[in-house]
């Protein structure tokens, strides 16, 4: 086994030991790692769990489509035009650093309770990072790309679709990776406050019942999903950034 | 102001005016949208009466505490880990996926462990901000040109002087990016935690107004928060630009 993998596993083991240590200090507040995994396995085997997981997955998939589509629709045209980018970037960055959770009441007022509010909340989380990375990805391209497109007399739209957007794919993938995790966070938070279904609702329910094993099991499952997806996108990103031109 | 700044201001003003017209003209459902002018008037009256002062002071105190701890811990951790390449390679996958975790889900667990009050709120803000600072510190130290530490050796500088005179200034732009991110993340973490289940603070006040159908107060407090975040980001952005301009001048 390569040392690197061994070291990473070692760090993971230290983390698990720390978790176990906290469990020994406060057995009622924190379930042990083994207990959490057992609870998660139990939930995965129970038929009542899957409709909730499906609801969350569907809301997340919709949010992701809107966040990526909307982010590209805003970011790519801004990247085409340096002045527009200069105007737009500080606005986008301010939106990114805004605690979006405070906007949740507005979303609820506009969309009402239910799926559309969750999807809207997930979308506003993910849209901005996708837009920022797409914009900067197009802006950072060498000018020779745009010149080549001009020499071929491509229209603005064809330039973007056939030349600039494909060239900016590595940055777009970075944006999508960040958008992916914050969209998941948005949908999950959305479910925690105003939903009768979904994993966020299950978590809120467990909090209400002081059911610590279930709380930790849900966090473990959502966290494991997020980390796995992130790792896959990160691997894709590395491949794209280091591909031969 | 630059041309881009003027256009940006014009866009923001136009958006606010459009919202005002839409709310007044009845285009949006009454109660959902309050005209911005009325929101501003409400905020003014709240500020004059001092109704939000206690919540505001508490929130800002929590953010400052979380952010300060995150900056110190993040920088120290980054500096230590940078000196231990083997540990760093082992940590890299964890750092890269850290922000993929749904943090606010931990908040209830933190309440169970730390009790209700400031502690879990500051802890969430800290957890959210610390890794951004740590990663920025690592990046900054990575980008120090190799020639610089060698020059320090030629001048027989000790490790402390090398760190203060060579490494810190050279890594400064990345460290500043870390500071900016840590401030923004500490705000997000603290406000969100207050919003979810606290009994005081600005985030709580917004949630409270919402639950009582007091949309005017809710929007006014949101405007206050927005104003604070924009001003803080603006100040940091300006400081960063000055720092970069000074580096370019040299």
TrEMBL record, chain A:
PANTHER family: ABC TRANSPORTER PERMEASE PROTEIN MJ0413-RELATED (PTHR30151:SF0), ALKANE SULFONATE ABC TRANSPORTER-RELATED, MEMBRANE SUBUNIT (PTHR30151). Residues 53-231 form the ABC transmembrane type-1 domain. Keywords: Cell membrane, Membrane, Transmembrane, Transmembrane helix, Transport. The lineage of its organism: Bacteria, Pseudomonadati, Pseudomonadota, Alphaproteobacteria, Hyphomicrobiales. The gene is ribX_1. It comes from the Bacteria. One of its GO terms (biological process) is transmembrane transport. It is found in: Cell membrane. PROSITE patterns: ABC_TM1. This is ABC transporter permease subunit. InterPro entries: MetI-like, MetI-like_sf. It comes from Rhodoplanes serenus.
Automatic annotation (TrEMBL), chain B:
Residues 56-236 form the ABC transmembrane type-1 domain. The chain crosses the membrane at residues 63-84, 96-116, 122-141, 182-206, 218-239. GO terms for biological process: transmembrane transport. It comes from the Bacteria. It is found in: Cell membrane. It is a multi-pass membrane protein. GO terms for cellular component: plasma membrane. Belongs to the binding-protein-dependent transport system permease family. This is ABC transporter permease subunit.
């Amino acid at each position: 086994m390569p040392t690197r993998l061994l070291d990473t596993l070692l760090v993971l083991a230290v983390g698990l030991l720390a978790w176990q240590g906290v469990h020994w200090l406060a057995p009622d507040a924190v379930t042990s790692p083994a207990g959490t995994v057992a609870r998660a396995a139990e939930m995965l085997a129970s038929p009542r769990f899957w409709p909730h997981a499906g609801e969350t997955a569907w809301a997340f998939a919709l949010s992701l489509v809107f966040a990526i589509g909307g982010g590209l629709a805003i970011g790519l045209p801004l990247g085409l035009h340096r002045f527009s980018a200069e105007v737009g970037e500080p606005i986008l960055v301010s939106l990114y650093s805004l605690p979006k959770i405070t906007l949740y009441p507005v979303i609820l007022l506009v969309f009402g309770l239910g799926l559309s509010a969750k999807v809207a909340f997930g979308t506003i989380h993910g849209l901005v990072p996708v837009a920022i990375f797409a914009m900067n990805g197009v802006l950072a391209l060498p000018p020779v790309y745009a010149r080549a497109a001009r020499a071929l007399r491509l229209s603005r739209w064809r330039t973007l679709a056939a030349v600039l957007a494909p060239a900016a794919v590595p940055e777009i993938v970075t944006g999508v990776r960040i958008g992916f995790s914050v969209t998941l966070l948005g949908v999950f938070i959305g479910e925690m406050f105003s939903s009768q279904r979904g994993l966020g609702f299950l978590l809120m329910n467990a909090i209400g019942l002081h059911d610590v094993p279930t709380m930790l099991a849900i966090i473990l499952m959502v966290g494991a999903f997020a980390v796995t997806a992130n790792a896959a996108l990160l691997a894709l990103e590395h491949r794209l950034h280091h591909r031969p031109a | 102001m630059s041309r881009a700044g003027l256009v940006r201001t014009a866009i923001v003003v136009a958006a606010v005016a459009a919202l005002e017209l839409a709310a007044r003209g009845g285009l949006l459902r009454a109660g959902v949208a309050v005209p911005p002018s009325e929101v501003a008037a409400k905020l003014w009256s709240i500020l004059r009466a001092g109704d939000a002062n206690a919540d505001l002071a508490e929130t800002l105190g929590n953010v400052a505490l979380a952010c300060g701890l995150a900056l110190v811990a993040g920088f120290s951790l980054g500096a230590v880990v940078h000196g231990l390449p083997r540990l760093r390679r082992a940590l890299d996958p964890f750092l890269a996926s850290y922000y993929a975790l749904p943090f606010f889900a931990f908040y209830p667990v933190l309440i169970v462990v730390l009790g209700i009050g400031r502690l879990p709120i500051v802890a969430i803000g800290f957890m959210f901000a610390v890794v951004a600072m740590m990663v920025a510190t690592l990046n900054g130290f990575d980008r120090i040109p190799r020639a610089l530490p060698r020059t320090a050796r030629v001048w027989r500088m000790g490790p402390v002087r090398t760190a203060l005179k060579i490494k810190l200034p050279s890594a400064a732009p990345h460290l500043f990016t870390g500071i900016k991110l840590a401030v923004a993340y500490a705000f997000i973490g603290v406000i969100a935690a207050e919003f979810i289940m606290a009994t005081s603070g600005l985030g709580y006040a917004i949630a409270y107004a919402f639950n009582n159908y007091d949309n005017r107060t809710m929007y006014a407090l949101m405007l206050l928060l927005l104003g604070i975040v924009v001003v803080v980001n603006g100040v940091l952005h300006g400081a960063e630009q000055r720092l970069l301009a000074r580096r370019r001048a040299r």
